[in-house]
Amino acid sequence: EPEVTQTPSHQVTQMGQEVILRCVPISNHLYFYWYRQILGQKVEFLVSFYNNEISEKSEIFDDQFSVERPDGSNFTLKIRSTKLEDSAMYFCASSGQGGYGYTFGSGTRLTVV
Amino acid sequence: SQQGEEDPQALSIQEGENATMNCSYKTSINNLQWYRQNSGRGLVHLILIRSNEREKHSGRLRVTLDTSKKSSSLLITASRAADTASYFCATDAFGQAGTALIFGKGTTLSVSS
User: Fold this and answer.
1) How far is residue A92 CA from its own chain's centroid?
2) How many Å lie between the alpha carbon of A15 and the closest alpha carbon of chain B?
3) How far apart are CA A49 and CA A67, in angstroms?
4) What sign results for the dihedral spanned by CA atoms B67, A93, A78, A28?
5) Of A32, A18, A10, A8, the residue nearest A92 (C-alpha)
6) pLDDT digit string, tens, across residues A8-58
7) A contact set with B (CB within 8 A)
8) CB of B88 within 8 A of CB of B7?
């Protein structure tokens, strides 16, 4: 069964450093997303991406965040200057033609120290 | 309050019993989805029910949707210890395909043998 692949599975970074989280969505999917889950809390939407541009973003997705689809397969989330409160599990997801039926990756656990 | 609120927050049952979790939401939706998350792991899509459907089955899972009450239920029959996990409902934010999902806080299910 097709999967959404995220790398790395765990990343530790110093506060103030830039991090790039990587995702390979399902190849024929058209919609791409990033979500995050702070430990013990609910999953929160960050951003959606369609047709090579951001289609929606939440209040969390401020100027410190950016997304990119640098080639035909990867979808990345960049945090420019990490803060302690950015520590969370970050999930990438993709969905197909109708926008339904999300598939989530297994997540990247980001720890900012 | 939030879109997609589950109750109960926690549920403890014995193996073989049925588990019922409920979800309420506020706005109109295209579809409602249920996800499972094992502790510290990724989100696993369980089932999607469209707004024009009232009931859907998948193996031991039964989902109902009542759009007039803006509520859904997830029933797991003949539960197993492996069903121990957190369960989340998620609705599309604006009733459009490809839009963000809004997750509830989840129900933590514990199945003891």
Assistant:
1) 4
2) 23
3) 8
4) negative
5) A32
6) 999 999 999 999 999 999 988 989 999 999 988 889 999 999 988 999 999
7) 30-31, 33, 35, 41-45, 48, 50, 55-56, 58, 89, 91, 95, 98-107, 109
8) no
